Amino acid sequence: MPAYPLAYPLAYPLACAQAQLTRRRWLAAALAGSSVAAWAQARQVLQVGPRRALRSLAAAAQAAGDHCLIEVDAGEYRADVAYWPQNGLLLRAVGGRVQLKAEGAHIMGKGIFVTAGQNQRIEGFDFSGARVPDGNGAGIRMDRGSLQLRDCRFHGNQTGLLTNNEADARLSLEDCEFGPILPGQRHNHNLYVGRIAELRVIGCHLHHGHFGHLLKSRAAFTQLLYSRLSDEPEGRASYELEFPNGGRAWVMGNLIVQGAQTDNPALLAYGAEGQVWPENELILVHNTLIDRRASSGSFLQLKTQSGPAPVRVRLLNNLFAGPSRMVPARDWEASANGHAAWDDFVNASEGDYRLRPGSRWQGRAVDAGLAQAPSGPRLILRPERQFQAPHHSVALADDAGRSLSPGAFPLD
């Protein structure tokens, strides 16, 4: 098995001789790996709270060493900002949510937290109100290393989470929420990932952008699974999803909704600034893409000839709805994609984009095959989970004999 700096591999390695292993096994292993097992041998445990010896996160950051477990009592922590260079660090909320409110404070001119260690993990934290002079105040600024977030929320910041361009950095997000962005910002993004090795997003909700994108990733390898990217009626995001430097992008099981107030005629963009990575591939499988604008545009805006080799595009089992166009190019692998009408959904006007009983698209998905990850493991392109509000994913029923439907809700 290839080495992963983060606590779990999302794509479980499947040798050709073991192809019969189900995706339920590798995804169960992935989610199980998100436990605190990696910190079971922690050499140091610190407790933070108003009645503890350590009353602030800033103090804990000064006291913590490598492989430290920091348990933080639920409550509000105002103007409490910190730099975290430690390796093997686990920050965990205890007894409820930890609410970090910047209130004008920032660390290093970057945001509420700045992280720079390997194998770091944060659970149950809310980040709000980050402002800095250069306009890029982030709930978390990831300078380098590897970071895993679970059940964290980012709202009312200039930028939700921002990373540097570090070629070996890795970021994993599970059950997190990004939005709304702080009003008055121009071209700031809910989640902005620089040129890092890998981004993984599972069961997250990104919403209410403000002229910037909901998710912008320059990573060499991006996996976006079972999430919701939706600008909602009040939002004004540009692209919902952009990969400006190409790379390998796997997008499966997501609901992606472009709001009516956007200034951008496209929902997803790839390669607009030219490919910088040696391998470039866009896989869209079992997604539901909705355009709520009044005028026609394009669901996808792909620039696939700006690198040393053409980009491989695979477009399978997706549903599109709205006035925009979706015309696959001749060199794309495209099958079982459909343009749905509003009455194909349970209640599109209320944001319920599950297929209604009797829809013409029910049961019409095809076998999408496998995808090969850069480091060797394979992913069977059959969804095993689906997004659940507010920011989670749930396992699909184990019904091997039932045909799947296109879109993000294949069994509903």
Automatic annotation (TrEMBL):
SUPFAM superfamilies: Pectin lyase-like. InterPro entries: Pectin_lyas_fold, Pectin_lyase_fold/virulence. This is Right handed beta helix domain-containing protein. The lineage of its organism: Bacteria, Pseudomonadati, Pseudomonadota, Betaproteobacteria, Burkholderiales.
